[in-house]
Amino acid sequence: MGHAAAGLDDLTAFLDRLTALLLRSSGEGAYFIERAVGTTARAFGGRASIVLVPEAAVLSIVAADGRMRTVCVHGFPEVIRLDQVAALKPFLADVEAGRLGVAEADRRLAHIEAAPPPYPWWLKFLGVLLFSLGFAPLVQSTWYEFITTAVLGAIAAAFVVAAVHAPRLSKILPLVVSAVVSVVTTEVFTGDPAHGGPVLLMLPALFYFVPGDFLSASTTELAVGLITTGAIRLVYSIFLLVQLYLGVLLGIFVTGTPLNALFDTAASADLPKWALIMGGIAFTAGTVLAFAIPLRFFGTLLVLVYATVGVQSLFTELIRETGGTFVAAVVLAAAANLLDRNPARPPRLILILPGFFTLTVGSLGLRGLTTLAGGYVIEGFQDLQKLITIVTAIAIGLVVGMALTHARTTTRPTSPNASSISQRPP
After folding, report:
1. Which stretches in the chain have pLDDT values below 70?
2. Cα(31)–Cα(354) distance, integer angstroms
3. How far apart are CA 308 and CA 396, in angstroms?
4. Sign of the alpha-carbon torsion through 36, 42, 44, 46
5. pTM as predicted
6. Euclidean distance between CA atoms 351 and 318, whole angstroms
7. According to the model, what pLDDT value does residue 156 have?
8. Which of 113, 156, 178, 262 has the smallest C-beta neighbourhood within 10 Å, fewest atoms?
9. Which residues pair with 60 in a beta bridge?
10. Dist. CA 411–CA 381, nearest whole Å
């Protein structure tokens, strides 16, 4: 079913609103924004080219009658309301299929924007806590790590919930939470070195704040030629890691703990195998609640989490950690691309996110910086070297996985200066 071509004013207002919402949920990368905006403009008889940085976009819009307008759109990137990302998928499908006029499309988009979070504050608290507990066995497979994470994760979750109603706190939330977690860890949980290094005890509680998704998106953007957005997002990811690192150091200084206490030795595993399986369930449930993902997607995401961990573990035995992580990223991206074609399945960002988190890339940066600060130079640089290697392996793996499952489409030619997904690899 078709509809009349949209006028310039209506098309501009709609694309302005759509681009702002896409920018705010741009953890997947700039290429998704380009494709969505360009395809939607064509559905209403117009054209749109876009110049992007992670927090802003310049839109050049041409309506069906040939009139043109340029607008600047702003939106700070965050991956905390994935219910809106989920709602956008069927909405954009309806727009592209010609089932909505521009006025109705704008009303539906405004409704998506204004929708309240799907879960109350206490479920978000529970989600952040489960997210931390589910990740703990991947850091140290010990009961002590699990118990420590239960306490520290609850502290981190309380700050996350508080920041929803305190915008000023949200700006420095990683710094504040890492400082408080560092103080509690060094004062309460680090008496016996046999329980593992202090940062390993802190890490699951801080994992919600580790920008692993942005690190991956930035390197993927660089890999497909989106140099400006990739470089800026990479710098922002490093800034978030440095906030966490400084918070840990502040906690060490406040408690008077010597820096050489920041060793990176793991404790001997004592968790049974069933606890690791339950950890995957807790981690997936926590991801759903913490990032406002619709509950109906839980089963699909749990399968992808287990598949990612299983593939990574299997191929790590065969071709070591970097190779195993690369293969896991290829499989995850390919599976997400194929599932994304089904309108009933979650969008690709949601499909990739939980499985990607299990690859634990961002945690290596925090471990490397804190180990260096403790004076363990060789171990610190080994962690940072591993971070660079693993980030690149994941980024290239995601690109390869998407390329292997990319559906060929015929698109209109674009001008040489237009930034368009049809000119780039998937």
Report:
1. 1-4, 26-31, 212-213, 216, 223, 360-385, 407-426
2. 20
3. 16
4. positive
5. 0.85
6. 26
7. 96
8. 113
9. 49, 70
10. 46
